[in-house]
Amino acid sequence: MNPSEIDTIIERYEARESAILAILQDIQAKEKYLPKEVLEQVGQRLHIPINKIYRIATFYRAFSLTPRGRHEVCVCLGTACHVRGAQRIVYQIGIELGIRQGETTKDRNFTLETVNCLGVCASGPILAVDGEYFGNMSPIKVEGVLKKFQPDPSDQKEASNGKD
Amino acid sequence: MERINSPQTLEEFRQAVISKRDPNQAVITICTGTGCHASGCHQVVAAFKKVLSEHPEGKRVNLRMTGCHGFCEKGPLVVLHPKKILYQKVKPENAQEIFEETVLKGEIIDSLLYAHPTTGEKIVHEDEVPFYKKQMRIIFGNNGSIDPASIEDYIAVGGYRALPKALLSMTPEAIIKEVKEANLRGRGGGGFPAGVKWESCRKAHGDTKHVICNADEGDPGAYMDRSLLEGNPHSVLEGMIIGAFAIGSHEGYVYVRNEYPLAVINIGIAIQQAKDLGLLGKNILGSGFDFDVKISRGGGAFVCGESSALVASVAGDVGEPRAKHIHLVESGLWDRPTNLNNVETWANVPVIILNGAKWYAGIGTEGSKGTKIFSLVGKVNNTGLVEVPMGITLREIVYEIGGGIPGGKKFKAVQTGGPSGGCIPESLIDLTVDFDRLTEAGSMMGSGGMIVMDESTCMVDVAKYFMNFLKDESCGKCTSCREGTKRMHEILTDISEGKGTIDQIDLLGELGWATAEASLCQLGGTASNPVLSTLRYFRKEYEDHILNKRCLAKVCRSLLTYRILSEACKMCGACAKACSADAIIGKKKSKKVEGIPYKIDAEKCIKCGMCFESCKFGAVEVQ
Amino acid sequence: MIPFVIDGQPVEGKEESNLLQVALDAGIEIPNLCYNESVKPYGACRLCLVEVVRNKRSRLTASCTYPVQPGIEVHTRTDKVLRARRMMMELLLAMCPGDQRLQEMAKEMGVKEVRFKKGDKDCILCGLCARVCDEVVGAHAIQFYSRGDRREMGAPFAGEAMNCIACGACVIVCPVNVIGMEEKADERTITRWKRTLKMKQCKVCGNTFAPWFQVENFREKANLPKDFFDVCYTCRS
Asked: Does B353 lie in the same domain as B213?
């Protein structure tokens, strides 16, 4: 991210110190994570010490300090989905992709996240991949859904590495 | 749109909007709430758009995308006005038929009608569907008729009528008096009388005051605020402007969860439209009152729903609560007097101002007036959002509105109040829904999540689930909450894995008590409710897990054994293929090969349950 | 001055002071770990719990963050208070079983057993180090990060604390003494924050007296002659 891009985002909020959350969210949306150098620059521009920025970046779940995968696999763990067996979906994805919540596959294709309620309780359990919702999920349907987002067969070698 | 500068001009505008609308015109409303989004409502919308554009009569029909109707179980939902014919589970391929048969000819399509779960009777009109019949939708009702991105729709159904009344025919003190007499209690979970809060804020020292709308709906399983903010944002905005006027505030914030992007967009549109029309900003309706609203997004932290943490987050810091011996109404956002209310609370304000406190107080019970929107979810037939008068019983909600438990299973408990609440067992199903009654039973109203559970729900697992949530969401500042939730979760995990000891039940009780008493904020303060309430009503389940290492609900994985019944095995091989641990051996039967019944190697089995899911012949037994 | 009662004893507190301070000044002992007069009260450890009766309602609360009010009744040793404090201590001990200070306090409080799985941490997350660094010293070198049971104290990006001036204030203020400071030759190390800085030599006597970084930091901020900091305190006087 170059300095002018950072400036654009900061100016969007009139360089207000209280807008730090919104600024970080815009950076996260653009870069898919918060690079260390960008955080340092933001701190300098807004006159916020880096220890506070790091604290904010690690407190809120919206932020990631490491690059996220190409596809965000999100399992809803709201109570309604939980009661319908959502935890088993997480477990099954763990078996399929070899990652736990918050982790990214080695081939950087998938990041597994859980969320505390997507508000789609009628069709639970819900699996959301890049914002696309798959309702009435069961562990047996997991493989089929994930297949849709696997890289091309030409990158097969990459994909099989990710399963380690 | 030109700026409206007086109540008279607003009325003229309203009449002009209404006069342009033919009450007999065919309007197709399609629910585009998030629930229906997941069921594919956008494809349905696209299909209708295509049909209407291709047919010569299509021009005369109005297609309106609305917010959440509430009947989420049966989405995608299409309601045809003016007759209010309800079609449920509509697919894109139905669009043509609906237009040609029902809209043009008035013929009803039977297969798309709602059928009564027991009698099988088909119901044509939305108002007669049992799900809607018992509800009292004074707040949520308009969600089905308006396009949230249209301020004109809101005005056409009577929106922004309370605003001129409040700003120009009432004094701030009179408004506060009205809200106090209506006894509007906070709908976010605290249940604190809004009028009293407004009064304290008005009296507080300071020229600059803030009003905040708490849209950080974090209870898992609750999505009422989301649907209100997405589907009828102006109703919330109108309430905020009236409240700000009563308190003497000119700067408001709507703090919306990061996980609700559509709500952020729709409230943003509403704010801009209100500003353009002059209903927000400087000199509103010529009253001399200035008020502006900004949006502040959350960062993914449940604790930011706590008022002092929310205020810290708006100010650009971590959401760490502070001791509230000095209340927010005295010193809140940037140390200024701040009045914070929930989305639903704000939406109740225009209704109270318009119809009067007396009318409002006529609904509900002695201590809980008005209605409440609940998200009725879990093991219930009619999952969705329901608005009912306070004082209705849980039985009526679960059975008459909810349609009972699916699959003929037995009702076990209903969880209210989210992670701060508790489970209410079958024996109390006739409990009236009321702030105080729910608290007495060991639960609380909370924000309105109502999770129905049946015999296949393990209560130890439910307590563990909530404790896992709380320990993750705790800000971590105080020992009691951070360590208390962690240790309660640890003990519950041990119990669910068959490693618990009987003295741990008392330890849970003591730890729960200490966490509640010693914690700094209400996250820790109510964290032990799920544990203590399930212990209170379902102690036997805990004991069964500990003493017999048994989970009768068949949920706690470590306590289950999977077995294939060789007599029932059809040797299709599906289980072995699905097995995640290569733990199933046998031979697939075919024309040439004899086949050997499949068997699970208990040592290798990781109890993922895939074999059970994949067997079409019910040959897998779970114990 | 605001009059109220602690354990039946009439006391007085300045406006905006807190219960804990007034109690300690009056010779009444209340256990505490995250409280220090030099910084704003925080309310993290929850050991200083007391029962406060106000307007006929009683509640358990942390005394360090409760502002003095006229006419309140404070009870520092009721059964309820002692029971809650003991559980807090037990939780802290389970978290940091090796801490000597905790063990001593636990003994005094009558906490005999720890009924939870013992962890292996040493930091009790009281925040005093960061609070002193932010509020008093102004170096902003360390802070809490993450949340819930993953909460920790440290430098940004979990590396060396690049803004640390090795003044040693955090080392002194830590109630469980887990930060550590070492001086070898002309270098000072703040162990926990992995920060080693060269000490500045006095132009006159040749002894090292303060870390370079700290001196330069102060030289920038202070309104004193530029060569003020080239001489150590002893030689200056």
From this structure: yes
Tokens of B132: 């809607």
Q: In whole angstroms, give the CA distance from residue B26 to residue B83.
A: 9
Better-predicted residue by pLDDT, B583 or B411: B411
Question: Over pLDDT 70: what percentage of chain C?
Answer: 99
Residue spans of beta strands (DSSP E) within chain A = 71-76, 110-115, 127-129, 132-134
Say whether both B62 and B195 belong to one domain. no
* A123-142 residues touching B, CB cutoff 8 A: 123-124, 126, 133, 135, 138-140
pLDDT over 90 (residue B614): no
What are the backbone dihedrals phi and psi of residue B27, each rounded to the nearest 5 degrees, phi first?
-120, 130
Mutation target to probe the B interface, by most B beta carbons within 10 A, among C30, C116, C149 is C149
Give the closest-approach CA distance of C177 to chain B in angstroms: 19
Q: Are residues A112 and A76 in the same domain?
A: yes
The domain spanning residue A148 has which CATH number?
Answer: 3.40.30.10
Give contacts of B482 with chain C, Cβ < 8 Å: 125, 148-149, 151
- β-pairing verdict for B62-66 and A132-134: unpaired
Given CB atoms, is C176 within the 8 Å cutoff of chain B?
A: no
| B173-197 confidence digits (pLDDT tens) | 999 999 999 999 999 998 999 999 9
> pLDDT (tens digit, 9 = 90+) per residue, B307-344?
999 999 999 999 999 998 899 999 999 999 999 999 99
Same domain? For A32 and A92 the reply is no
Cα–Cα distance measured from residue A160 to residue C91, given in angstroms and rounded to the nearest whole number = 45
Q: Among the three residues B342, B361, B380, which one is the final residue of a domain in this structure?
A: B361
The pLDDT score that the predictor gives to residue C80 is: 97
Q: Are residues A20 and A94 in the same domain?
A: no
Would you say residue A42 lies in a domain? yes
Residues B323 and B346 in one domain: yes
Confidence of residue A154 (pLDDT cuts 50, 70, 90): low
Q: Tell me whether residue B1 is in a domain.
A: no
Does residue B588 lie within any of the structural domains?
yes
Domain range spanning residue A93?
71-162
Whether residue B537 is found in the same domain as residue B515? yes
In a domain, A90, yes or no: yes
**Across A136-147, average pLDDT:** 89
A152 lies in the same domain as A99? yes
Chain C nearest CA to A47, separation (Å): 12
Q: Say whether pLDDT at A52 is over 50.
A: yes
Model confidence at B623, in pLDDT bands (50, 70, 90)?
confident
Nearest to C65 among B323, B474, B518 (CB): B323
**pLDDT reported for residue A158:** 44
What does the H/E/C string look like for chain C? Answer: CEEEEECCEEEEECCCCEHHHHHHHCCCCCCCCCCCCCCCCCCCCCCCEEEEEECCEEEEEEHHHCECCCCCEEECCCHHHHHHHHHHHHHHHHHCCCCHHHHHHHHHHCCCCCCCCCCCCCCCCCCHHHHHHHHHHCCCCCEEECCHHHCEEECHHHCCCCCCCCCCHHHHHCCCCCCCEEEECCEEEEHHHCEEEEEEECCCCCCEEEEHHHHHHHHHHCCCCHHHHHCCHHHHC
On the question of a cis peptide bond just before residue B76, with omega within 30 degrees of 0, the verdict is: yes
Kindly state whether residues A38 and A95 are assigned to the same domain. no
A15 and A86 part of one domain = no
Q: How far is A58 from chain B (nearest CA, A)?
A: 9
Give yes or no: residues A35 and A95 share one domain: no
CA-CA distance, B370 to B434, in Å (whole number)?
A: 10
State how far the Cα of B474 lies from the Cα of B486, in Å rounded to an integer.
10
List the one residue out of B141, B303, B166 whose CA is nearest residue B227.
Answer: B141
CATH number at residue B212: 3.40.50.11540
Number of domains observed in the structure of chain B:
5
User: Do A80 and A151 fall into the same domain?
Assistant: yes
